[in-house]
Write a structure and sequence with these properties.
The chain has 14 helices and 28 strands. A six-stranded mixed β-sheet has the order 2-3-1-4-5-6, sandwiched between helices. Strands 7-8-13-11-10-14 form a six-stranded antiparallel beta barrel. It folds into four domains: 8-216, P-loop containing nucleotide triphosphate hydrolases (Rossmann fold); 224-312, Beta Barrel (Elongation Factor Tu (Ef-tu), domain 3); 319-430, Elongation Factor Tu (Ef-tu), domain 3 (Beta Barrel); 445-597, Rossmann fold, CATH 3.40.50. Strand 22 (405-410) and strand 23 form a beta hairpin. The termini are far apart.
Length: 605
């Protein structure tokens, strides 16, 4: 069935993951597939058989895959190895996902790249704990095409009743998690029954062979036909020999992009037209598509950062939120705990995240469910709510699996992963939607933020000075403004009263109006920062919730918070603490030094 003479450019390719409990014979099944499709290098099979004779070991097809030294030493697959073979229909990449419980983490990354799956179960041992775990994980990863291979039928004398018993048990399990297997196949990897052909030993079975099923799996719709998505990897600025290009770079997950297209970046909502598609050491082309490393320049310069998601105007927009409902599989040795800080990574974005609520926890090995747990333990699956410290862009799993998958990092290690199922409203959702619309409609200057920063020798920054009554907020703020102005900085002090009795004059002076006061103040700050200024604002007893409103409207990277005085009367997580009225000059100098140290004010040569 080898088809290496066919034009490879005209053939389709499919990624298949193979999973199963340790020692259930995955490697043997793969070895047989390679041998029976003549996909092995010339002489490879004979060489392995000869080595077995030399070492007085019985030959096994699994040895064809034992390329990793650790596999040979331990007898278990410890990494996701890729195996290539072909049938008359198409080319395949088999991702050999680990079966041992210690290596489930590797399986997640292996399975995430697959379009379909073979799940191997030992006929002699039956359905095991990992068999259930793997079935659940494959379903969570959105792999809907699953064929169950019941291997080692030779060890149970090719018993049809044993086969039917395992088929019934596992089909009921899959059904309980919303999955239906395409088929169940009785095989013997060692003897070759059911792999490439049906044999007399399984004459009672009249279904498909493993190879038949592989060729019968349906290809996913090409990602090229989905809405354009490109997580922003970096922004590169060229300066040599008059080259002033500002290039947006990343890898396209789905869709296509062409010169002249309007791109919108989320969650900021900023937009611009593609001026040029840049290629390095490659022929010029005005188009880029899925899986390509893309680089392009924009007609109008806008401030965007790594972690944003580029989408195409007019197509389905990605979602943006700080609160999401997810399905999650936990792999960390330490439990996933409520209100502890972790990191969530999706695309190129990395944000702090906390587990806010657990809807239910499922033990993936037996599907026992609990709705009263306060943590998610190792190898448990959960439906839960995550709260992020800032909004990210993503798609829901039902719309785009590539941009809905995330991982959770705990102490520098990937400890969990899952898919985003639902966007949840938070108290800032309406404000965020308004900001996206504002940025989308924003009339952009031809002067870029970089040019303003270079001209003024400073990065535009909102400096919020807060603290209790009598701590000296205004005194510190005004001295700081004076010092920075004397140094030649573009700086402005804005007291809360300047806004309260001006643009806020129509608002009631009540606690219920506080959110709108802060929203308007933040919008004023946004305009001042866009002009390149250092803006100093004072506010009494600013809380973390108050700051979150401001951060929804103003880029959080452009905000520096200062607490004045020794009395802490708020839950605010501030950046700088100063004595306040006790020593106004010292307080001002501390803030100024921090601005220098953080590169917000450029030091003179």
């Amino acid at each position: 069935m080898n088809s290496t003479n066919k034009d490879s450019l005209s053939r389709s390719q499919m990624n298949i993951v193979i999973a199963g409990h340790v020692d259930h014979g995955k490697s043997t099944v793969i070895g047989r597939l390679l041998a029976d499709t003549n996909s092995l290098p010339d002489g490879k099979l004979d060489f392995v058989k000869q080595q077995c004779e030399i070492n007085a070991r019985p030959f096994e097809y699994a040895f064809l895959l034992d390329a990793l030294k650790d596999e040979q030493a331990q007898g278990i697959t410890i990494d996701s190895a890729r195996v290539f073979f072909s049938t008359e229909i198409r080319d395949y990449i088999i991702i050999d996902a680990p079966g041992h419980i210690e290596f489930l983490k590797n399986m997640v990354s292996g399975a995430a790249r697959a379009e379909a799956a073979l799940l191997v179960i030992d006929a002699n041992e039956g359905v095991q704990e990992n068999s259930r775990r793997h079935g659940y994980m494959l379903s969570m990863l959105g792999i809907k095409q699953i064929a169950v291979v019941i291997n080692k039928m030779d060890l149970v004398e090719y018993s049809e009743s044993v086969f039917n018993k395992i088929k019934k048990e596992y089909a009921e399990f899959l059904s309980s998690i919303g999955v239906k297997a395409k088929t169940f196949i009785p095989v013997s990897g060692r003897e070759g029954d059911g792999i490439a052909q049906l044999t007399e030993s399984i004459s009672w079975y009249s279904g498909q062979t493993v190879l038949d099923v592989l060729d019968d799996f349906e290809k996913e719709k090409p990602a090229i036909n989905k809405p354009f998505r490109m997580p922003v990897q970096a922004i590169y600025k060229f300066t040599n020999m008059g080259d002033d290009r500002r290039v947006v770079a990343g890898t396209i997950e789905t869709g296509t992009l062409s010169k002249g297209d309007t791109v919108v970046f989320y969650p900021s909502g900023k937009k611009s037209k593609v001026k040029s598609v840049e290629r390095f050491n490659a022929p010029k082309n005005d188009n880029v598509s899925v899986n390509e490393a893309a680089s392009f320049t924009l007609d109008e310069q806008i401030y965007i950062t790594r972690g944003e998601m580029a989408a195409k105007d007019g197509e389905l927009a990605p979602k943006s939120s700080k609160k999401i409902k997810v399905s999650l599989f936990w792999l960390g040795r330490k439990p996933f705990e409520m209100n502890k800080e972790y990191f969530l990574k999706i695309g190129t974005a990395k944000v702090s995240v906390k587990l806010e609520e657990i809807q239910r926890v499922i033990n993936a090995s037996n599907l026992d469910a609990s709705e009263e747990q306060r943590q998610i333990s190792r190898h448990e699956v959960a439906e839960c709510t995550l709260k992020l410290d800032k909004a990210i862009a993503f798609d829901l799993a039902e719309n785009n699996d590539k941009t809905s998958r995330f991982v959770i990092v705990d102490e520098y290690e990937i400890a969990g992963g899952g898919i985003i199922q639902k966007v949840l409203e938070d108290k800032y959702s309406q404000i965020r939607d308004n900001v996206i619309l504002r940025n989308y409609k924003w009339a952009k200057s031809i002067i870029s933020p970089e040019k303003r920063a270079e001209k003024y020798s400073q990065k535009s920054t909102l400096i919020i000075v807060t603290g209790p009554t009598g701590a000296g907020k205004k005194e510190v703020a005004k001295i700081l403004e004076s010092q920075l102005f004397t140094d030649g900085r573009i700086v402005y002090f804005l007291g809360i009263g300047n806004v309260k009795y001006g643009i806020d004059a129509d608002l009631e002076n009540s606690e219920s109006s506080r959110e709108e006061h802060l929203r308007r103040l933040a919008e004023v700050a946004h305009i001042m920062l866009d002009a390149g200024a250092l803006l100093i604002v004072t506010a009494r007893d600013l809380t973390q919730d108050d700051l979150e409103i401001v951060k929804t409207i103003v880029n959080p990277d452009k905000i520096t918070t200062v607490w004045t005085g020794d009395d802490f009367t708020s839950d605010l997580s501030f950046d700088i603490k100063v004595p306040g009225l006790l020593d106004v000059e010292e307080s001002s100098q501390i803030i100024k030094n921090e601005l220098y140290e953080n590169g917000l004010i450029f030091k003179p040569w």
